Amino acid sequence: MTLLSVLDILLVIVGGAGMIYQGLCIVMSLFAKPVRFPDAPMTNRYAVLISARNEEKVIGNLIGSIRDQTYPSDLIDIWLVADNCTDGTAEVARSLGCHVVERHNLELIGKGYALTHLLGHMLDTGVADDYEAYFVFDADNKLDKHYFEEMNKAFCSGFKILTSYRNSVNLADNWVSSGSALWFIRESRFLSNSRMILGSSCHVGGTGFMFSREVMKRNKGWKFHLLTEDLEFTMDSILHGDRIGYCGTAILYDEQPVTFSQSWRQRLRWSKGFLQVFRYYGSALLKRAVRERDFSCIDFTLMLCPFTVLGVIRAVMGLLFAACGFVSWPSQLQSLASWSSGIIISVLGLMALAALTIIVERDQIGATNKELLAYVLSFPIYMLSYVPISFQALFAKAQWKPIAHKG
To answer: What's this model's pTM, rounded to 2 decimal places?
Structure first.
């Protein structure tokens, strides 16, 4: 059996398993009753952790939405780390009654390091133990007024780590913001929701999540510093046996990039981060999947597997082998033709996925029907751009860079 044949078999098995699982999740989410949590006393004290870098234009919106919660405001303390800010973010947050910690470090850059600094300060000053759990938000977020009330119900049901429904404030801006927003809505509706029904673990998506004091103490604050620190936190938690829950009635609104260059840069960092997490956690996930028969580990191994990168490598190797005379040109051209037909099927499938997401979640999506039709047609362009991004991630030195928000 040749190396190309091995790659072909691997791609078929991994890709096929991933597609079947995604399809089952969609069907399950459409027909199974979503998980709902019973009412709970609103007595827990929570800390909100925000990492902000030059966010004076938008931070007031998030703080205002936290102050306007149906959950008692005196049980929610807001802690903000002004991370290498050169504007008035710290002053705005202080004026709105937040606890502000300023950080200046141009060598260790990124949200993970900022959260480490913030929680480290809270531990050092002895205030971290004042809270039952900690919420993490990005500065551009806005929250539904029932957000904390709903998350509190799930927390009181026994989950130590929780994520929430991620919507967007600017889905209708253009095809770039809509592509990103539809992807997150799809993830909430069809993946996180189905994982809860299956009894599997969900994963936190960078913002709109919470973790208990017990988890914080186990990690001695925040210890995750890869480019996708949220995914690293998820994998570490799953390897510790935690089941990450999802509360679909807690709705967060995020601001998406509106230019293709911003989106490319952001997704390049995510793709590089996925490769980092796969490198550091992939083998441990497989070992736990076999040893503990943990389906969540199988689920996330499929999610982390760099399928797009493997596909590009397979195509390039096929052409090189043919050029060197190791294999015939007709066989490789036939493989490329098969891949081309697969791309066409993928385009149609992505359009159908975007359309289904819009139909099912229409009440949550603020855009006209004409705009939504255009976004269904453009969604495959957004998603297929991941192919060159994933390939570039193999060689690029992606770094965390802030994205300007307009609020």
So the answer is: 0.89
